[in-house]
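User: I'm new to structure prediction. If I give you an amino acid sequence, what do you actually give back? Let's try with this one:
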Amino acid sequence: MRKGQEDSNKSSPVLDCPILTHGEGVVRFSSLQDTHPWISTGFRTFLEDSSMQRFFKSILPGMALLWMLSPISCKQEKVQVLPATKEAFRESGKKVTDAFMKALGQRLKAAIAEGGPSYAIEVCSKEAPKIAESFSTQKFRIHRIGTRVRNIHTGTPTLDERELLQKLSPKSPDIVEPVNGKLVYLRAIYLSNALCLKCHGDPKSIDPKTRKVLARLYPEDKATGYKLNDLRGAFVVRER
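Assistant: Good question. You get back a string of structure tokens that encode the predicted 3D arrangement of the chain. For your 240 residues, that looks like this:
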């Protein structure tokens, strides 16, 4: 065996996939042998057979076209929903979020009266998910999301929720849209009460005891730095 061949056999095979070149009327497979010397001569002969050459030459343009069009074909088709159906889901969403807000608000006011904002945070971390679960049904699920997230496990919006969240405004405080064949309702949460800033305001103005509790319960907390009337997030009601 010649020295060049020995060196070639000792080298590690290239892991990158060899590219099939389509030019001058021939599909070239020489890169297979160059980068993968362990390919047998019989297999190389099979690949370079004239009939195989014609086959690959005929399908490569079509494969390239399919590859270019694949992002378009994978896009989800927008589902058309009757206005009356959307409006009915909106009304259901309003009712359940009204009930959720009332129950959570009462629980937090009681906690603040009992132990201040730091204690209210403790209560909210435990009670808010339970209250949300209690209002969820077999037909829909309710939860909250944030423009900046405090609880990364329950408050992080999905991609479609983030898109809908960006459409909310004081003039359009809620929205209903179909997502993957299911209706989704978002209702804006604005920091309209100065009391909210005791936990969500400027970090420098938050009481040190409250900051300590936030750091312990939510080490990745980003839900501070808000001002009065800022959009804090949204209630989400998702059809199951």
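You can read the tokens as a compact description of the fold. Here is one thing that stands out. The chain has eight helices and six strands.
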